[in-house]
């Protein structure tokens, strides 16, 4: 099970997802200023760490996929 961190600096928010979450786009390499950056992370420990280290003010875990 991999994780995906979504960082959207335009709205100061970082959200951690599981890689199968319906909110995660098929092509996670796509990003821009408004949709933000989707970053694939292979293990849980690093995913949680990446969320902690995010410069975004709001650090959330997805309510849908509960990573
Ligand atoms: Zn999710």
Word description of this protein:
The chain has 67 residues and is an alpha+beta fold. It has one domain. It has 1 helix and 4 strands, in the order βββαβ. It has a 4-stranded mixed β-sheet, with helices on one face. The longest helix has 10 residues. The chain is globular. It starts with a strand and ends in a 6-residue tail after the last strand. Bound molecules: zinc ion.
Short description:
It is built from 1 helix and 4 strands, in the order βββαβ. It has 67 residues and is α+β, with helices and mostly antiparallel strands. Residues 17, 21, 23, 62, 64-65 line the site of zinc ion (ZN).
Break the fold down into its secondary structure elements and pairings.
Layout: E1 3-8, E2 13-18, E3 37-41, H1 44-53, E4 58-61
Parallel strand pairs: 2-4
Antiparallel strand pairs: 1-2, 1-3
As a whole number of angstroms, the C-alpha radius of gyration is 11 Å
Count the DSSP helices: 1
Mean pLDDT: 91
Mind describing the biggest β-sheet? 4 strands, mixed
Domains (count): 1
Largest sheet, spatial ordering of strands:
3-1-2-4
Helix content: 10-25%
State the distance separating the first and last CA atoms.
Answer: 10 Å
Order of helices and strands: EEEHE
Q: What ligands does this structure carry?
A: zinc ion
Query: What form results from the Cα inertia axes?
Result: globular
Assign the structural class, choosing from mainly alpha, mainly beta, alpha/beta, alpha+beta, or little secondary structure: alpha+beta
Low-pLDDT residue intervals, each spanning 5 or more residues: none
> How many DSSP E strands?
4
**Strand portion, in percent?**
25-35%
């Amino acid at each position: 099970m991999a994780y995906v961190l979504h960082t959207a600096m335009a709205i100061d928010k970082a959200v951690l997802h599981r890689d199968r979450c319906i909110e995660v786009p098929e092509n996670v390499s796509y990003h821009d200023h408004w949709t933000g950056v989707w970053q694939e992370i292979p293990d849980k420990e690093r995913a949680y760490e990446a969320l902690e280290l995010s410069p975004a003010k709001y650090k959330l875990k997805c309510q849908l996929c509960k990573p």
